[in-house]
């Protein structure tokens, strides 16, 4: 299969490209810089130069592919409306290029779009007023192509996709613990976070490309981890105390009130339907072991 990937040089993208190439697929990656192009070439991908605003380039690359994986998402976080619009326009351009082909089209989202406070499944209605609701516009734009002859699929990543050289939520949490000399959690720390190893997530992307039916909503979740356990493991690794914060204290402790809200989220998610549908079984190290033994606390 010839697969076009956006965001292939980011955090999770390289693992996906390695998995696809290792499995015999031919990958073309979108590169907006020389550094991105170099990374993609080292991974064994061919290069298409451009960015998410180059809609004609996206459409042409999708048209010549047998499947598309859309990972890229970003821009100026001070302009969330602009980010949403850019993502929807990119999803729309990619999807239109695939209309009537029955080719797979995977759009990446996150499990934080789901409501807090209870275990959420792939069938749970998302929280359209929640802190991650911005990702739902891309989900909606993707799934709209199911009725247009596209094998459109939404794949929601856990908020923690861990592995070497991580630069997501957990390293930010570790950075705060280093700066404040305390590893903190909010409330009693029983709130749960979904997590998945990067290489397990990459396998799920491949399986989805190869066999997920149109309209699938998939969860890349290997486990749900209590936040107090995350904070305790970080504290032990840094040799700093662990402390409980109130919601008011958390807003000042973390890098922003938004991050305090994210770290306080009780957002367990199930991947039972995903595992059954695609025979996906995470096999790599879990989050706490990765924290204790990986490169996070060095």
Describe this protein's structure:
The chain is an alpha/beta fold. The chain has 2 domains: 2-159 and 196-220, 3-Layer(aba) Sandwich (Rossmann fold); 166-193 and 223-269 and 285-293, UDP-galactose 4-epimerase, domain 1 (Alpha-Beta Complex), CATH 3.90.25. Helices cover 41% and strands 19% of the residues. The strands form 3 sheets. It has a 7-stranded parallel beta sheet, sandwiched between helices. It has a 3-stranded mixed beta sheet with strand order 7-9-11. A two-stranded parallel ribbon has the order 8-12. It is globular, with a radius of gyration of 19 Å. The model has no long low-confidence stretch (mean pLDDT 96).
Low-pLDDT regions = none
What about the largest sheet? 7 strands, parallel
- Helix count, DSSP H or I runs of 4 or more residues: 12
CATH architecture of the largest domain: 3-Layer(aba) Sandwich
**Helix and strand string, N-terminal first?**
EHEHEHEHEHEEHEEHEEHEHHHH
* Strand portion: 15-25%
CATH class of the largest domain: Alpha Beta
CATH superfamily of the largest domain: NAD(P)-binding Rossmann-like Domain
Number of domains: 2
Task: Tell me briefly what this model is.
This protein is an alpha/beta fold. The chain has helices at 13-22, 34-42, 55-63, 80-98, 136-143, 169-180, 198-211, 227-238, 247-253, 257-263, 272-278, 287-293, and strands at residues 2-6, 26-31, 46-49, 67-70, 104-110, 151-157, 160-162, 183-186, 192-197, 217-220, 223-226, 242-245. The chain has 12 helices and 12 strands.
